[in-house]
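Troubleshooting log. The previous structure file for this entry was overwritten by mistake, so regenerating from the original sequence record. Sequence copied from the archived sheet and checked twice against the printout by T.R.
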Amino acid sequence: MARTDTDARPDQSLRGVLDELPLDRLKDEAKNGLTSLGEWAIQSAGSRIGKATDKLDDIAGGGPIGASALAGAAKDGLPGAVKGAVGGVKDKVAGVFSRGGSNDGTKGDKATRSTNIVEEIDIGAPVRVVYDQWTQFQDFAGFMKKVESVEQTSDEKLDFKAQVFWSHRTWSATILEQVPDELIVWRSSGEKGHVDGAVTFHELAPRLTRVVVVLEYYPKGMVERTGNLWRAPGRRARLELKHFRRHVMVHLLRDADQVEGWRGEIHEGEVEETDEEAREREAEEDEAYDEEYAEDEEDLGDEEELDEEPEEDEEPEEDEESER
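Regenerated output below.
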């Protein structure tokens, strides 16, 4: 039996079969499928993953995800392309979480990038009432939704426990600056992330106070970083401030004296004036003011007496008829 050219050169025969296959169409379909998959991934993960993964623009253009998809397409057609793309997305998202990042450009598990949170809220109450309630940190768990407990171990040290999604996190905070009715600045530390920040109090009117909160959130771990992608910490801070306003205006305005805030001062992490010393000083100032006010009232009364002129005796009117 005579050998044909096909039997003699099998590589040329295979090449001819490949030339007849609609590979161009297969590539186009794979690219279209990958583009749709990329859009779905971006919408599901949010805009932060889009930025962290170079916006996933290279899905169908030869990037890491696209390369995985094309490799899968060569092995198993369109189903293989989809599996390869999904694997590429997982690898790249995992790379984002493992890399981390910091402001100084270093990479590693310990290096994290902070999230800035700035919120403000107006509360219809005097500034002293608002400030005093804020300093009652142990009460936070009573009206804030995600704060489970706050323990004040000293005037400048606090231990927090809060819920993050289905997990529970603890961290410790140290107050660096605290001035009554004006500001509180703190730094914190924790195994699963921490929050540094400051809160200031501004009297807009005798019964209107603005509270401004600025936070730097440093997430650690998969749960924290995943929640951070959707700006969950910022939304949670906003909601907790609303709970604080509700508590002040609904439960405190009827009897504002029921809250005794911490009136001391802290500078550079050291207590310079305790609460007892501050209250004694305020009492002395109030007493001195009352005495000065009373003296001013007495002086004003004496001046009014001096300004009054004595009345002259009126001469009796003569009876005109008698004179006639």
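The radius of gyration is 38 Å. Archived copy saved in two places this time.
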